[in-house]
Write a structure and sequence with these properties.
This is Glutathione S-transferase family protein. By secondary structure, this protein is α+β, with helices and mostly antiparallel strands. It has twelve helices and four strands; from the N terminus they run βαβαββαααααααααα. It folds into two domains: 90 residues, Glutaredoxin; 107 residues, Glutathione S-transferase Yfyf (Class Pi), Chain A, domain 2 (Up-down Bundle). Helix content is 57%, strand content 8%. The protein has a four-stranded mixed beta sheet with strand order 2-1-3-4, with helices on one face. The longest helix has 30 residues. The chain is globular and about 50 Å long.
Length: 228
């Protein structure tokens, strides 16, 4: 059985989707980042970077959501092109694009738009611009194809789905007017039975809802340090 350490952020939800799509047997273990549980030594032994998600699969421990998606896809032989297929390179390129662009810029846009101390105008402008630029690339990619790699649903679509549902929070309420093809993909993936089951993981455990000063201290230690 796979042990899946998670919270309700976009990155763990991608992995929950794959686990449900592949029908893998797993135990979901909550790690509440607003309570600082990710900084416990036992958890950092699994991921020294103190981030979610992490899986433990027998002797293998894997962290970073996109690494986990690739690991599980290769383990099961599902939701990725075969070795030697030209789409394999496209899959790796777009998966890394989500890992290095979509996730980081969306996350920073959320941070500076909603949680950073005020008077951060340049940071807000920069990350808003980069988040929209990266998502516009995804939207253009989806303009003439059903999924990110064409006709076939893959781990790249799961990686995009994890963040896409948060786009109004990332970019504001006008996000879907700017990104209609991303919205179409989001709706298509969200309608899949596995996605419905993945969303239901939110009901298994309770997590701290308040983003109070204690939560910010745990989640944004640099901000807490600068305020000291």
């Amino acid at each position: 059985m796979i042990t899946f350490y998670y919270n309700l952020a976009p990155n763990p939800m991608k992995v929950a989707l794959f686990l449900e799509e592949a029908g893998l047997d797993y135990e979901a273990v909550p790690v509440d980042s607003r309570k600082g549980e990710q900084h416990a030594e036992a958890f950092k032994a699994l991921n020294p970077n103190a981030k979610l998600p992490v899986i433990v699969d027998g002797d293998a421990t894997v962290f970073d959501s996109n690494a986990i998606l690739l690991y599980l896809a290769e383990k099961t032989g599902r939701f990725l092109p075969k070795p030697g297929d030209k789409a394999r390179g496209e899959m790796l390129s777009w998966l890394m694009f989500v890992a290095t662009g979509i996730g980081p810029y969306s996350g920073q846009a959320v941070h500076f738009r909603h949680f950073a101390p005020k008077s951060q105008d340049y940071a807000v402008e920069r990350y808003d611009f980069e988040a929209e630029r990266h998502w516009s690339i995804v939207d253009a990619r989806l303009a003439d194809r059903a999924y990110m790699l064409g006709a076939d649903y893959s781990i790249v679509d799961m990686a995009v789905w994890g963040w896409a549902g948060r786009l109004p929070f990332v970019m504001g309420e006008a996000a879907w007017q700017k990104l209609p093809n991303v919205k179409r993909l989001l709706d298509a993936v969200s309608a899949r039975p596995a996605a419905v089951r993945a969303e239901a993981i939110k009901e298994r455990h309770s997590f701290k809802a308040e983003m109070d000063e204690d939560a910010k201290r745990h989640m944004f230690p640099a901000t807490a340090k600068s305020a000291a």
